[in-house]
Write the structure tokens for this entry.
Amino acid sequence: MTTRLVYSDFTDSMLAPPLGVPIEVMPGIVWIRLALPFALNHVNIYLIDDGEGWAVLDTGLGDQETQDVWKTLLADHIDRPLTRLIVTHFHPDHIGMAGWLAAQFDLPVHMSETEYLLSRNIHLDPGALDAEHYRRFYLRHGLDAETTQRVVTQGHAYLRFVTGLPPTFERLVDGDRLTLGGRDFQVITGGGHSPEQVVLYCAAERIFFSADQVLSKISPNVSVTATIPNGNPLNDYLRSLAALGEIIPADALVLPGHGLPFHNAPSRIKELTAHHQARCDQILAACVTEPRSVAELVPLLFHRPLDPQQTSFAFSEILAHVNLMLRKGQIETADTAPGLVRYVPRAVPENRV
Ligand SMILES: [Zn+2]
């Protein structure tokens, strides 16, 4: 690194550093914020000392701006060769530049199998994103035809900001050890935000690369998708949070996929868990007054105007809570209109009252 800021003394109230500037957060670990053209305006990537060079953890969005920043980083800042790519999950802000970087430097890509296959699938079959089953999915849950059209054509556009993946990869499996430089990391995978997201924990130095599974300020999006309309990703997410709560101690430095590094993962995990419980309570309360579709619940739970991408996130996030509550027997479907699903609190049989 020819120029860098050094945060030798971490506090949880530090200000966000400028975009595209490498920050050494501890010896051999470099944090870089890359811009995103979305409401969430940046993603964090990391360089991790890997002996002869740097391993790259996540890559930024696969767009021209990010590629230009990478070119500057490689020309002016990164002083040793890249050794490999580690990609936490298939979302384009994390995986976007992986194909380009891997091809440039002939780098191996380390990923979980589900995330690799999902990304390959989207890249090879991008037309599937505006296919008929997506329209049916939104319409059935009450989104009007015009909004459905906008969500299907614009809301998924970000999924195309990728540069592909090489045809082979190094598979990361939950419970594996990954040695980078002198550090030994535990590979942990968790579902909910994406199906098999990889996070890394170095117990010796209390370093936790949390990807999007545990973020300091925002609650990671947990969505039901049209491909698995009856899926229960919120259950996967809460299960993953509970597991991480047992592993990550309060004094570990959490290096997340968005936002600032922070400490005290266990308390943040409790907040995230409570947030989802509160959302379930809100949905239940809304369905007590009258049967509600997922689309009808969106403005009751999200009070700000939403663009097509945010509408698709909000819609699918509410459905994640609904599917969990259906599984738990807290709500059930109500027959109020043909072709439309609405929900009401589950009637308790009289002999159980
Ligand atoms: Zn992300």
The chain has one domain: 5-285. Residues 96 and 162 are 4 Å apart (CA to CA). The mean pLDDT is 92.
